[in-house]
Amino acid sequence: WEKLSQVAVKGAEYDSRERQPHPKCLQGTRVTILDQIYGLLDSREESRLIWLHGTAGVGKSAVAFSIAERMRALKVKEQGISEKRLLGSFFFSRKHTKRCTTGYFFATLAYQLASNFASVREDVNRTIRDNPALLDPDKSLRDQMEELFLQPLRGL
């Protein structure tokens, strides 16, 4: 856990002090895209990955922050257990060395996942004990995604 904590990029979270003032959608703006994304996230029929993309200045960060803020406030209640809906977040930045590359992306999300969902923390710890090279920023993204992120997710 200590190794993962050291590698995880703390300033990448949606509500990091490093990113203040936080960009967010003003009331009544970007309603169509927000409603579309909320609809996808509320669907339990299948898992979803939503990738926001666009040119600089179109509001990707504001949309992502608004979504993360809403998901953080919501809880999932299954089998009497209430857990958060926000697994984690990673905001890239050209200004910050560890946030301008994908090298720390999955390690950071794994750290947030294990922090937010205690039920998978031991799985993440075991994975890192078995293969500490997964925390190397030059390790294959495919391997990091599968072992640090997808396998623990399947345990939820």
Protein topology:
Layout: H1 2-7, H2 31-42, H3 60-73, E1 75-78, E2 81-84, H4 105-116, H5 121-130, H6 141-154
Antiparallel strand pairs: 1-2
Helix-strand topology string: HHHEEHHH
Poorly predicted regions: none
Output the structural class. mainly alpha
Specify Rg, calculated over alpha carbons: 16 Å
Q: So how many helices?
A: 6
Assembly classification = single chain
Whole-Å distance between the termini?
19 Å
The helix fraction, in percent, is 40-55%
Strand residues, percent: 5-15%
Roughly what is the average pLDDT, rounded to an integer? 89
The coarse overall form would be globular
Characterize the biggest β-sheet. Answer: 2 strands, antiparallel
* Lateral strand order in the biggest sheet: 1-2
**Number of beta-strand segments:** 2
Entry keywords:
6 helices; mainly alpha; 156 residues; 2 strands; two-stranded antiparallel ribbon
Short summary:
The chain is mainly α and 156 residues long. The protein has helices at residues 2-7, 31-42, 60-73, 105-116, 121-130, 141-154; strands at residues 75-78, 81-84. The longest helix is centred in the middle third of the chain and has 14 residues, at 60-73.
Structural account:
It is globular, with a radius of gyration of 16 Å. It has six helices and two strands, in the order H-H-H-E-E-H-H-H. With 156 residues, it is mostly helical. It has helices at 2-7, 31-42, 60-73, 105-116, 121-130, 141-154, and strands at residues 75-78, 81-84. Helix content is 44%, strand content 5%. The protein has a two-stranded antiparallel ribbon with strand order 1-2. The mean pLDDT is 89.
